[in-house]
């Protein structure tokens, strides 16, 4: 997206949010439709149940409706909306421990019988991400999947930038351990070190 399109989208979101704050339901619907797909992609990484994703999106936009007048323009509207979704999905996952996002770290899904290489890699990385603590995983998703800066992630999560940097550091360190282990090379290395 070029700079003009980003600037135009930012101004459009701000104008829509001002209309939402004034009670304009059509503006809320426009924001909802504009963010639904991106939020669904983001949230589906933490809960595999379609119903849970939709519930979090609906709860997010209910909060947008209620709090639009309180938006202080300290961040982009998109950062604010994703921040609401982030906090909402954290609450939802913690409330529904049986949800697929709350995978028992000792139980990993069986790998597919004959996946293509891309599917195998996606499964492998997904298994490693599932082993991370929820806050670390969400921070990684915001940084690498959605391309948020440290400052935007801090604004989204309500955490200091230092905490975000620490979460990313620890998540990457854990992935360095998990990925080889899940790929089968970690065990071989351990055997080599035992000799």
Short description, anyone?
This protein is mainly alpha-helical and 195 residues long.
Describe what this molecule looks like in 3D.
This protein has 195 residues and is mostly helical. The chain folds into two domains: 1-102, RNA polymerase sigma factor, region 2, helix turn helix motif (Rna Polymerase Sigma Factor, Chain: A), CATH 1.10.1740.10; 106-195, Winged helix-like DNA-binding domain superfamily/Winged helix DNA-binding domain (Arc Repressor Mutant, subunit A). Helix content is 73%, strand content 0%. The chain has helices spanning 3-21, 25-43, 50-67, 77-95, 117-130, 134-145, 150-157, 161-183, 185-194. Helix 4 (77-95) packs across helix 7, helix 5 (117-130) crosses helix 8 (161-183) and helix 7 packs across helix 8. The longest helix has 23 residues, at 161-183. It starts with a helix and ends with a helix. Mean pLDDT is 77; it is low at 98-115 and 187-195.
